[in-house]
Amino acid sequence: MHLIVTECVPGRRLAWSTLVDGDETDSSAYHGWVITPTKTGCHVLSEETQQGPFFLEELGRKNPGALYRYHQEWVESLARGAEARVAHAVKGHKTMSKTDIEKVLTIFQSISAGDVDLATQHIDHKRFVQHNPYATDGVEGLTQFISESPRDQLQLTVVRAFQDGPYVVTQAKGQRSGRNVFFDIFRFEDGLVVEHWAFSAKNAPPNPSGHTQVDGPTEVEHFEDTEKNKSLLRTYYETFHIRADHSRSEQYFAGDLMIRHEPGVCDGVTEFMRDVEVLMQHRTIDEINFLLGQGDFVFIAAKGTHEGEPCVYIDLYRVKDEKIVEHWGFPEMVPPKEQWKNNNGML
Fold this sequence. Notes:
Elements: E1 2-9, E2 13-19, E3 28-38, E4 41-51, H1 53-61, H2 66-86, E5 90-91, E6 94-95, H3 100-113, H4 116-119, E7 129-130, H5 138-148, E8 156-164, E9 167-176, E10 179-189, E11 192-201, H6 226-242, E12 259-260, H7 269-279, E13 283-294, E14 297-306, E15 309-320, E16 323-333
Helix pairs in contact: 2-3
């Protein structure tokens, strides 16, 4: 199709006509916006008319409801774009300072809005290294991904975010390439993102204890316990999962309390111990590559194998009173090297 703008009054009105390329039925559409400023932004009234066999067939018979869904996605994207812009509001002609977490959230919001410029504003264009094996390296890879992906594949909602030194860790939900649950790590230098790692899994129904991969507490608490909790998790993980020494589990858990968010499992340390014994027959966990935390949350990414094939193990723990009380996580198989779009390694 091609469009002809017929009216443009900035901030007030916008209208255009649409003709279908190569169509001999004279099918056409006309779209108009009336924009009314309000105290908090603006109100947009959008209306479209269509005529001709092409629209009747394609949007009427073949895809009933598609036009409504398309417009709904459009206005929601506008809202997300506006919110992302607000995040960059200026004060006295100077950009308000942002925390690294706020910068990462702006990146997510801007990707969801399809705004390439805003999505890459907090990324170092010269030094950025991409570790997601499914993405091309550098800022060019992110730009290409945003430009070529269907809009519904860009929508992610961050449910948890915390920072450890130059690293920001996020957990998000959404829909992207058949995956629904996401962990991302961003490394900052001089106020810009210079490195990115990404891990994902398919969503699943609530497990028998009623938990999903993303529910549970989201806000960081007890910031003063960060280093103590990280030390606890390092000892636990190296002992319990790498060396497979389960002899002193009481050191790490409070009785049978263990809230578990993995699919298909039940709460409780007793159930967890049974599951671990089975898992040990099929996996190895060889090395911790990331151990990052803030307050009561500690994130671990480790290398290992599953059924002899390379695997990455992703775990998020919540600690309370020096005991592990909650866990989210999943294994992700490392794709064959011939499928990698960069050579930077998954971890």
